[in-house]
Write a structure and sequence with these properties.
The complex is a heterodimer of chains A (629) and B (451). In chain A, strands 1, 2, 6, 7, 8, 9 and 20 form a 7-stranded mixed β-sheet that branches. A 6-stranded antiparallel β-sheet of chain A has the order 14-15-16-17-13-18, with no helix packed on it. In chain A, strands 11-10-19-12 form a 4-stranded antiparallel β-sheet. Chain A has 4 domains: 7-199 and 344-453, FAD/NAD(P)-binding domain, CATH 3.50.50; 204-343, Elongation Factor Tu (Ef-tu), domain 3; 469-555, tRNA uridine 5-carboxymethylaminomethyl modification enzyme MnmG/GidA (Arc Repressor Mutant, subunit A), CATH 1.10.10.1800; 565-628, DNA polymerase, domain 1 (Orthogonal Bundle). In chain A, helix 6 runs antiparallel to helix 8. By secondary structure, chain A is of the alpha+beta class. Chain A contains 20 helices and 22 strands. In chain A, 36% of the residues lie in helices and 18% in strands. Chain B is an alpha/beta fold and 451 residues long. Chain B folds into 3 domains: 6-123, Probable tRNA modification gtpase trme, domain 1 (Gyrase A, domain 2, 2-Layer Sandwich); 139-211 and 386-432, tRNA modification GTPase MnmE domain 2 (Four Helix Bundle (Hemerythrin (Met), subunit A), Up-down Bundle), CATH 1.20.120.430; 217-379, 3-Layer(aba) Sandwich (Rossmann fold). A 7-stranded mixed β-sheet of chain B has the order 8-9-10-7-11-12-13, with helices on both faces. Chain B has a 6-stranded mixed β-sheet with strand order 3-4-5-2-1-6. The chains are: A alpha+beta (629), B alpha/beta (451). The A-B interface holds A 54-55, 84-85, 88-89, 91-92, 275, 293, 295, 428-430, 435-436, 546, 549, 552-553, 578-579, 581, 600, 606-612, 614-616, 619 and B 1-4, 27, 72, 78, 115, 117-120, 172, 175-181, 412-415, 417-418, 432-435, 437, 440.
Amino acid sequence: MIYPKKYDVIVVGGGHAGCEAALISARLGCDTLMLTIAIDSIGAMSCNPAIGGLAKGHLVKEVDVFGGEMARNIDETGLQFKILNKSKGPAVWSSRAQADMVAYKYRMKTVLEHQEHLDTKQEMVDEILVEDNKIVGIKTNVGNEYLCRSVVITTGTFMKGKIFIGLNEYEAGRAWEPPSLKLSDSLRNLGFRVSRLKTGTTPRLDARTINFDVLTTQPGDDDPIPFSFRTENFNRPNIPCYLAYTNEKTHDIILSNLDQSPLYSGMVSSLGPRYCPSIEDKVVKFFEKKKHQIFLEPQDANSTEIYADGLHTSLGYEVQLNFLRSMKGLEEVEIMRPGYAIEYDFVDPTQLKHTLETKKIKGLFMAGQINGTSGYEEAAAQGAVAGINASFFVQKKEPFILGRDEAYTGVLIDDLVTKGTKEPYRMFTSRAEYRLILREDNTQLRLAEKSFNAGLMRKEDYAIVKEQIRKIDEIKKTLKNRFLVPTPETNNKLLSINTDIIKTKTDLAKLIRRVEVSYDTLRTIVTDLPPIDKFTKQEIEIDFKYEGYLSLQRQQIEKFKKYETLKIPDDFDYNNVNGLSNEVKGKLMDIRPVSVGQALRIQGVTPAAISILIIYLRKHSDKRFKIAN
Amino acid sequence: MYDNDTIAAIATGYTSSAIGIIRVSGKNSIAILKKVFSKDIDFEANRVYYGHILDKNGTIIDEVLVSVFMAPRSYTGENSFEVNCHGGYVVLNAVLERLFEVGARMALPGEFTKRAYLNGKIDLSQAEAISKIISSKSKRALSVAQRQLSGKFSNKLDKIRESIIFIMAENEVVIDHPEEELSNTTKQEKVNKLLSIKEKLQSILKSSEFGNYLFEGIVLSLVGRPNVGKSSLLNILTGLERAIVTDIPGTTRDVISEQFTIRGIPFTILDTAGIRKTDDPIESIGVSKSKEAIKNSDIVVAIFDGSKDLQEEDIRIIEDLQKIDKKIVAVVNKIDKKIILDKNRLNFKNIVEVSCTTKKGIIELEDMLSKLSLGDINDADIVSLNAKQKNSLKNSIEICDLLIHDVKKDIDPALFAVDIANLVDELDEIVGRITNEDMLDSMFKNFCIGK
């Protein structure tokens, strides 16, 4: 049937990208429909039971500021929280939490069900309906046609998903769930380049068969910090993980059974992620390493299932069992679910704009693993941006685009649409050029205004952030305007907090720039400084201590913006530019960069080619300028 | 600027010679050639054609040889050709005018090389080498420039860059994989790596100073009280090879400088007219004027009259020179006469005894000057860099010091990353891996027409 209700936005898929896209679209007032293969699997964690991690924590917090749900959801269902890299500087701190994955997906499903303007239905989407290169609707496996104005596809690993366990293979989208067999053909027929990627997961173990007494305990932080800046009365448990190690016997078992691996026997030829290698890859490629660490993580608060992080494998069941039992503490372990490798269809993301809309079909957006990424957080960030822009497309608003100088989400999307990817793309802090500015701790401070102006942030939430900013500025001002004079008494006090004496009149801001001085220690000698909360303290200390480097990065951003603002018109004809090689021309016409800055980041586009382009664009805009005058 | 135009220019300069070459490059080169060439043929790459250049009425302008190059296998990377005409301004100009009639335009200074750069045929350090080849004042300088053009210097920098990128990567791994057990390099290993990078950069900087000497020439000043033989020594030095006299317009009066080479190294003596004039005992040289000459020079040659004892003015000169940080050669002249001067009182490290009359000691003086300018450096290690490139190199060395300091102080790896990224940026500026318009403009403006 042609379904009578017409939607503004249809979201295909209920994973981490789909949930954010659907919720944000509905929250922006669009009539939204989420279609999923299995309603019970909404918000499911297919792999590790954790949210956040290096650079991923940044993404979660950014999604939070864009009105998404991931941060709130983990704050309500996490089992332990930890800041990684705490021994290093604040720019590379990252939050990570173990999730109760059952509670996580249950809460997410409940949030969706209670969201105004959002319908959720269990149907499989088989076909995208397009007229004149514009989206008109979709068709499902039960014969329904839903008409709509825009579609966000978030299929994860489900399109033509194929699972490998040893030499056994079967069709599945995730573990034992059915794959989507028709949708990627529909995309191929529309002219999209679709290829294959591979990823994998680890065996799940029965906690009752593990000897935890001989393993190292890994608890979370004692004083945990929530992901969402809106979370109040944060009080979550601190359930530990455990550390186990492979040994030479484990490695021998793996090496002597490589013929049982679909990856080494040639059954799977698509590329998997280099940074998240299977245990067989680790053993083969880092032959000299005598042991690898394995994190044993609880999957949820009530079950006995344990996730064995670091043991991604596609080896056969028997081999998995044997190498597991070779490890200390796992001598008698039972597998509850075996690890597997999965191969799936993804769409080359260079076919997308920065809004995540396809260049080819108006109103068609894509987010998550379908764009070649890996990770819940990467998916959620794209889901948020696709949901926002699908809504703005319907509402005829200006697109919402994040720069590389504004957010990790901006870096992620720019990388995807500019460079594409040959392996599942994972976020790293090293991908962000301006990471001293794009910190996790200041996420809401740097993005609230943009988010509020785009209508993504509620007034009361914006008020919270504005108050935070006001407080920080006030204390900074106080510190700059308070002076100490070098009296013997003052200098004695300074020595008492283990810092050097002063020789001239010195403001407190200058003192706090010293490594060994904090706001708290300063207050012990300047007793009338106001007491402030932990967050404000942290922000002023970062601002002062890193001042030199921060201003350096701000200068770099200005330089970067010079090229970003040098726009290349949509209809620009590269054939008119003499001196560009055919190879470079082909790349530029394929990607169609929006600015010279983006063109510069396309692989294989040389600085010399950029010079030619700049000179050409300058000359042309000059001509237009002259005509206008 | 870059466009579809076909450009043409006289490549051999505007002096009379047996043959002259006109170079043409651009998309329409071959079509243009067909319009002016006497034979109607399909031109092939890398071949030489004999024929005539005709004017619009079909009258012969000149009998020529034309070499044809096709993109991308040409100097500029575009279709291009070269016309070997009979030399002489009138003929060359007539051919050039004819080319302009049929669609070529005059090349801007440096435009051929700029196109070669834009088409990826050369990098910036190679472009710099080309400008040096053109302006080389000696064979020795020419061969050094040729070596740089072949890309040897760029390769050297690439290797340094690679080792920096490796340190960067090590740093990033520590940041992005905190839970991995990585075999960290020790602090001392890191410092050693950075020290070795710094040393390599310093040695390049040093070689570029020599490059400067070799290409720009060494400025000598001759000081001494009147009548010690400054003028005679000047004549000997400049007379050893053909002296090139150039007029450089000054602000208040004309300053005459003279150039000569010793062992392939170009030398320049400023204000030679002044030296000749003030050697007249009546018009003695003022101390302030000699001070000015000393300030602008790389090497100071102080001349004393060996047949007389030190005079008051000699002593003042010695005292002045001891205050400054310059390479100094003391020349004791007139050794054909009876030596009265006590050499020990000169108090200089480098002393040469000569006679401008008998030319005795002149070869030793030349040896000394050559040693003081290039030392024992191997020509293969000499590079030529422009001021901007040298500045980047100096910045790089400073950044190395900063990085070593960072490592010693256990700086936050995120901050170390910022500092080391700057180092790569500076190096990239030297070979032009980073697009910097201002640099390109200033760089290519310095080229003469034709290349």
